[in-house]
Write the structure tokens for this entry.
Amino acid sequence: MNVESELEKGNFVVGECLKCKKTVWPPSDYCSLCFGNVSIKDGPFQGKIIEFSKQGNDYFCLVEFNENVKIIGKITGETPQINQNVMVKKCGIQNGNYFFEFISS
Amino acid sequence: MANKVGIASYGMTKFSRDDIKIESILLESTKNAFQNCSNLNQKDVEAVLVSTNNNSKYLSAVLSEISGIKPKISHSVESLCNSGTNAIVSAYSYIASGLADVVLVAGAERYDSPGQVLEWDNSRGEFKHPIFWASIFTKSYKREYNVRDEELALVSIKNHHQSIKNPNALTKKEYTLDEIMNSKKLTDDLKLLDCSRPCTGGASIVLASENTINHLTDSPVWITGIGQKTTSASFTKNITFSAMESSRISANSALKMSKHKADQIDVIELHDAFSVCEPMALESIGVSSKGKGLELVKEMIVTDSPKINPRGGLMGSGHPLGATGIAQTIEITQQLQSKAESRQIDNPKIGLVHNMSAASTSSTVLVLEN
Ligand SMILES: [Zn+2]
């Protein structure tokens, strides 16, 4: 069980170093601070939209979670606002590429 | 004391959308670098470095063989869009350390380069194409400094205007504000004519030690400052989206090494991958204060000065990734040698090259002097 296999199942989780407790993101085999082993840190995680733009009808947002985890994903059915609180509604991995979708929280 | 390192010769290819083999592009610019320097012999070249994102293998050995060179040192350098200046820094280091006296650095890319998308960067989700980070940078810069799209379009106007005088440029076409504003909308914050275009092209440069350079050229240009910084590989690890942190740090290091200040720079080639990159780079280098980069761009247009991106930058010239940093360095070299023909600025003494990768997660800055 690792972070990537959870993401593949649609569970948004991040890594956490077993030794120093630092958040490990993007998923990696070891902690970038102390090279400790990585375990899974479960959500749900609260994030904030820090920037967004729009392609066609789809908004894409840069969202910041705690511990310097920032990801880009879609938001549908609403117009995003800066500093808006969001959570990951959907995530997964398709052809090796991650995808994320956010929802207001 | 490290050896001084100078630029002895250079060669370019035209930038195009042509389907040309990577080996042919490398050879073309290398041939031109030799033909531009009558005293340069293949046996003088002790290292051959190839800068590219192309998937072909063993290119430095291949280029060496087809150019008749048997170098001591040969290898490729890949670092996405700043591969070119990174290869120049490697060449500099071989010479400064005494491992080589003459080094050939050849950069080349094809229009279909795999270096355009950083597959590894999964924090970008399904938005891995560079237009998405560029949109985030643009939106963030506009928000922070209250800038309008029409003002950012000035970068495209200026750099396409300057590319008319660059014989190797991809398009050599001028655009009006209306044409830029009405060009294809890629996102709400980015239009087609706000973007540089990947292309096929090559650029080669020959560096030499102080002891050997006088046999090769009577107008050497010296590399007097080098700064490099990599802050991350992930776009989302940037600490700001309205400034270029790695560029700020590398420019600061390069200027410090050269013992100059940003306001002493006479001519600059900077990495305008997208319109917003030009004011952000000017501010990060320290030529403009925060939020004032576009004022300088406007001033350049009003005075018709080619001081910033004289060859048209990436937007005007095209962006063959592995060749870009070398082409930028060649432009500044020509400027400092007063060989830039109709692009020439008046009597420059100090020039600067700014080359970066992947939303400024990595930057290289060189200071050149005649
Ligand atoms: Zn750790």
Summary: The interface with chain B takes residues 25-27, 50-55, 60, 62, 68, 70-74, 82, 94, 96-100 of chain A (CB under 8 Å). The pocket of zinc ion is lined by residues A 17, 19-20, 22, 31, 33-34, 36 (CB under 6 Å).
